[in-house]
Amino acid sequence: MTGGQNLMAYETILLKIEGNIATITINRPPMNPLNSGVFRDVIAATREIEADDNVKVIILDSTGDKAFAAGADVKEMVNLTPVEIYDFSLNFRKACECFAANPLPTIAVIKGFALGGGCEMAMACDLRIAADNAKFGQPEINLGVTPGAGGTQRLTRLVGAARAKELILTGDMIDAATAERIGLVNKVVPLAELDAAVAALAEKLASKPKVSLKLCKSAINTAEDVDISSGIAFEVLTFSLANASADKLEGMKALLEKRKANFQDK
């Protein structure tokens, strides 16, 4: 499968593949609440993306400017039994892992509210670019519950325990500038410039050799879960594997010959 041909149609998302870049767009405007349908569609779309060997970068976007995702869909959740909530949360986790555990780099494009589950799904991506109108928060405590799709874990790793406790225990929202300052997002740009900024970043990543992209992400993800000695041991393995690639030879030859490398993703 190549170039975005014959893509499936989905109920709650839009899928676009152009060259090396795939974009999943949450399509439940205006607030884009996350329900079981979104989880199913994200998981299915990711499988479709994985079938396209040309794709090197995945973007997670949303329809409209009011909300990236204002949270998990309370209308669906309110009457679920504990067992049903457990299944709901498991499916949400699987959807988030489509970005966090995906071997390809992933970028969240955040406009408006990214609250609760919306913030959690954004945090599952490798990089987060926010518009200046973005608002972030984990307000679950105001509903008498806790984050349930990685909020307590990913937020702590991104901003530290003290900041995570402040946001989760108070349920307060923060603006985009504060999110950038504490490390929750990588960059904030004016809303009118958001699409161009994300496109430039995605194209920059897509210009890199695919083997190295995957190995670098894998090593960084491993660093979050193991001690430094084990992490460096894993890094040695990724370094060795990268050196076995055809792109390693091309990259080094290009440097020595003072020309631009022509990577073939092999």
UniProtKB/TrEMBL annotation:
MF-aspect GO terms: hydro-lyase activity
Keyword line: Lyase
Record bears the keyword Nucleotide-binding: no
GO biological process: fatty acid beta-oxidation
Residue ranges crossing the lipid bilayer per the database entry: none
PANTHER family: ENOYL-COA HYDRATASE, MITOCHONDRIAL, ENOYL-COA HYDRATASE-RELATED
Similarity annotation: Belongs to the enoyl-CoA hydratase/isomerase family.
Protein name: Enoyl-CoA hydratase
